[in-house]
Amino acid sequence: MASFTAASGQTPPPDAVHPRDSAPESPTSVTRLNETIRGFVANWGAVWVEGEITAWNLRGGHVFGRLKDASADAMISFRLWSSTLQRLPDDLKVGDRVVACVKSDYFVKSGDFTFTVSSMRRTGLGDQLERLERLRSQLRGEGLFDPSRKRRLPFLPQVIGLITGERSDAEKDVHRNAELRWPGVRFRTIHAAVQGDRCVPETIAALGTLDADPDVDVIIIARGGGDPQTLLGFSDERLVRAVAAATTPVVSAIGHENDHPLLDDVADLRASTPTDAAKRVVPDVAEQRALVAQLRSRARSRLTQRLSHDVAQLEQLRTRPVLRTPETMLTTRAHELWTLTARGRDRVTRAIEAGERVTAQLRASLRALSPGATLARGYAIAHLDGGVIVRTATQAPAGAGVVVTVAEGSFAAVSDGPVAESDA
Q: What is d(CA 199, CA 194) in angstroms, rounded to the nearest whole number?
C-alpha cells in the first residue's frame, strides 16, 4: 500500500483510512466503516438470551421477529432461516417466552444490525400474554363474550361511526371500500390514538360520543394491525367493558388474522381488517341490484306461470257443454218451467172447481135449513114486544101485541087469547 503523509499534501483515498485514523482531511469511507463494525461485531460470538416474542412474521420461509425484555422496554430484532426453523417447535408464536441462541450480524451494504437465531426453545408464556389470558378468562366467565348478547348489525346503516387514527390507512380503507359498495353511505369519524398511553382514554371518549348520537347506527373501531405490543390498548379492561356497555353495535377491525386483542371477543362483530369491516357493515349496491333483479325475474316468472295456469283452467271450463252453448241450459230450464207452470195451473183449476162444488153443496144445505125458506113455504114467526118468539099459545094472552114475520116483511097483530083445539 502506498504511504501518504501530510507533508506531501495528498489526501489518502477513503478506503485506505482506518476509522480510528479518520479526520476531516482524511475521512474514511462508509464501506470501510461498515466493514470495521462487522469485524467488531463478529468477535462477539453467539450468546444465549431470554425474552418474550412480540413479533413473528413469516416471509419466504424465513421468520423475522422481535424479542422483548420482560422487565424493561428493550428489544432486539432477529431472523430465523428456514433451515433453522425446521428444527424448532411448530407452535412458537407471539407471546411465548423463549431462550434463544443468537449471533449478531451487521450488513455492510445496508448498515442494518440484527441477530441470527440458531436455536430457540420455549420457557413459558410471556407476562403480558399470561395477564391477558387471565383477563380473558375472567371476562368470559362474566358472560361478556357470549354470542347471545351480541347485537345484529343493521342491514343498511344511515350513518357509520368510525374511530381510528388520524390520516391512517385504516380510515382510507374503510371509507374507500364502503363508498365503493354503497356510494350514499355517510360517516361520522372521530380520530383517536391507536397505540400508547392515549389510546384507551381517547377511544373510550370517542365511543361514548358516537354511542350517544342517535343518528349513528353502527360503530367501527379500526387499526391497521401491528405487533402485540402496540395492540395492548385494545385489550385494556376499561375499553373492553365500555364496548360491552355500548347500546350501538360495535365492529372490531383492529388487525390481521393472527392478531387477537380482547376487543375482538367483546365486539358484536370481529372483522379481520378495516377493509373487511367496510365490506361486512355496508351491503354491495351491485349485489343488491342483482338480487332485486333476480327477485323481479322470479316474481315475473311465478306470475306468468299463474296466469298461464288460470288461462288454461278457464279454457278448460269454456270447453264444457254448459259454457260452450249456455242457451241450451236456458231452453231446458224454460221447458221445465213451462211444464211446472201448466201443472200448477191445472192443479189450481181443479182445486177451485172442487171448492166451488163444495160451496154449492153447503149453500144448498144452508138454504134448506134457513128460516127464510120455511117462511117462504107460508109459515110465520110471532114475536112479543120484547122480541121473545112465541112458542106456546099461553105466551100471547088476549090483548097481547105481537109482531108477525112472514116471508116478505112483518106486521103487527093483537092476540085474542088461546084458541081451543075444537075451535081451531
A: 5
Q: What is the pLDDT of residues 190-222, one digit of tens each?
A: 999 998 889 999 999 999 999 999 999 999 999
Tell me the fold of 139-283: Rossmann fold (3.40.50)
Three-class DSSP category at 373: helix
Band of pLDDT at residue 1, cut at 50, 70 and 90:
very low
**Grid cell locating 135:** 383477563
Give every CB contact of residue 15 below 8 A, 6+ residues apart in sequence: 28, 29, 31, 32
User: SS3 string of 292-325?
Assistant: HHHHHHHHHHHHHHHHHHHHHHHHHHHCCHHHHC
Tell me the three cell numbers of residue 395.
Answer: 105466551
Fold of domain 44-125: OB fold (Dihydrolipoamide Acetyltransferase, E2P) (2.40.50)
Cell numbers describing residue 112: 442494518
Nearest C-alpha neighbor of 155 from the set 134, 182, 177: 182
Q: What is the DSSP string of 64-110?
A: EEEEE-TTSS-EEEEEE-HHHHTTS-TT--TTEEEEEEEEEEE-TTT
Pairing of strands 401-406, 159-164: unpaired
Going by their DSSP bridges, the two strands 381-384 and 46-59 should be labelled as unpaired
Contacts of 412 (CB under 8 A, 6+ apart): 401, 402, 403, 404
Q: How far apart are the C-alpha atoms of 114 and 110, rounded to whole Å? A: 11
Greater model confidence, 71 or 373:
373
